Amino acid sequence: IMALDNVLALFMLPLFGAISDKHHSKWGRRTPFIVVGTLIAAVMLIALSFVDNAQLHHISDVAAIDDPAALETIYDREADETLLTPGGQKFVLSRQFTKEEFTQIRSQITVDGAAVTNPDYTNYVMPARQACAWDATAKSPVTLVFFIALLLVILVSMAVFRSPAVALMPDVTLKPLRSKANAVINLMGSAGGILVLVLGMVFATSAVRNSLMSYTGYFAVIAAIMLAALVVFMLTVRENEWAAEMQQQSVELGLEDKEEAATGERKLSVDEVKSLIFLLLSIVLWFFGYNAVTSKYSVYASNILHKDYNLTLIIAQAAAIISYLPVGFIASKVGRKKTILAGVVMLTAAFTTASFMSAESPTMLMNAMFAGIAWATINVNSFPMVVEMCSGGNVGKYTGFYYTASMAAQVATPMLSGLLMDRMGMHVLFPYAAVFTALAFVTMLFVRHGDSKPEAKRGLEALDEMED
Question: Looking at residue 146, what is its pLDDT?
Fold first, then answer.
């Protein structure tokens, strides 16, 4: 289920990016996709919670947390040996408890005055309850079918607006300014992620007592935020007007010739095609390295470093957020390729150093090695390099290329790194990541196009002087 998003993105993002390139309306090329996709996603998100509520109703006899009657029902259903695993085997787990002992298990216990999750609840009650839920689903799979169907609608609707929304930035932004603009996109993405984390804390979605909560209220608030953002977008963004201004300024500054600006089409040269291929390959490689670490670090930190992974991830996120805008300005001065290469060197050095760290290593050193700044340096500039090579008529298609490369890596690397960690031990994680980021450095050396043109920078300076 969790992999569906990335798998669908491989096909959906370039598809809707290319479709939006060819779409023309009085509202613009991207706006209709943003509006329709957001509306469908917001409505279907709430509908998904209703289906989840229906499943909770089907298992209402065992769903109450810390309820002796529900625990007794779970125990009895397991004891009569009718519960099966998804593989068809009999489910047996709680026999080491008497019924009286099992019904007294609570989700939390007090240790040294602090409330912590009860391991007996995690190890015995939760799997038994899940077996009851699977049994209910196997007998009546209607809710599961509806859940999958609605989830697919949500994922497709989000793909409808994701590529067009990101493609809107290069549509209305001059090429030399796109690193700065992409820094703002990354900053807003991080703000959205933080907002969802705060909402999760408000609704206590991670609390054990809410492991079987209704998500209708939580999803309704998220949908309301999406719709509020859509209203702001509709009231403030004038796509056609801004795109026309950008095209006019691009011709004046020598970024595009008149024919290219008029037709919106531009054929890449052989060298540009090679640069695009090597750039997309670089994106795949550094995502292979970085995403492997982010997806596996919680397990690695717990088992190898014996440290709290939350603090490290928070510091990395904060460092990236602080770096986004400065990195965009640096790239506008020294060039995107040099900035990315510097970020790849920092990332490789960080992962190489982390490979030698152990539980005895200082915690702050590990936090520093997680390299939020390095990732921001790479991430802010890679997408602008991709769309630098295209014309205004196929920005959406090239946006899809970028997301296909990044999503392909994010689908594959958790499985590959997990397989190697199973076969060779968890210590392979950081050397694995360092190898892929080092390879990305090599492939980036072959990228010859995608940086801002020097003459465009001079033109922008002249434009600034004229405005002054």
Answer: 93
Helix 372-388 / helix 336-355 crossing angle, nearest 10 deg: 150
DSSP 84: B
Q: Quote the DSSP letter at residue 124.
A: I
pLDDT at 248 over 50: yes
Long-range contacts of 419-423 (CB under 8 A, 24+ apart): 421/296
Distance in angstroms (rounded) separating the CA atoms of residues 367 and 446? 32
The 10 Å Cβ neighbour count of residue 127 is 15
Which whole-number Å values give the CA distances from 24 to 27, 28, 240, 442, in the listed order? 8, 6, 10, 40
The whole-number average pLDDT for the span 88-114 is 82
Q: Kind of pairing, strands 108-111 and 114-117?
A: antiparallel
Q: Mean pLDDT: which of 95-99, 308-312, 420-424 is highest?
A: 420-424
Instruction: Work out the mean pLDDT of the chain and round it to a whole number.
Output: 82
Euclidean distance between CA atoms 386 and 449, whole angstroms: 9
Contact 27, 239 (CB under 8 A): yes
CA-based nearest residue to 340, from 369, 380, 371, 372: 380
* Among 87-91, 132-136, 280-284, 288-292, the least confident range: 87-91
Which sign does the torsion angle of CA 402, 408, 409, 410 carry?
positive
3-9 long-range Cβ contacts below 8 angstroms, 24+ apart: 3/411, 4/151, 4/152, 4/155, 5/155, 6/407, 6/410, 6/411, 7/411, 8/152, 8/155, 8/156, 8/159, 9/159, 9/162, 9/403, 9/404, 9/407
The CA distance from 234 to 35, in Å, is: 8
Q: What is the pLDDT of residue 122?
A: 83
Which residues, other chains included, contact 466 with Cβ-Cβ below 8 Å and sequence gap of 6+? Answer: none
Q: What is the mean pLDDT of residues 211-238?
A: 93
Task: Provide the whole-model pTM.
Answer: 0.75
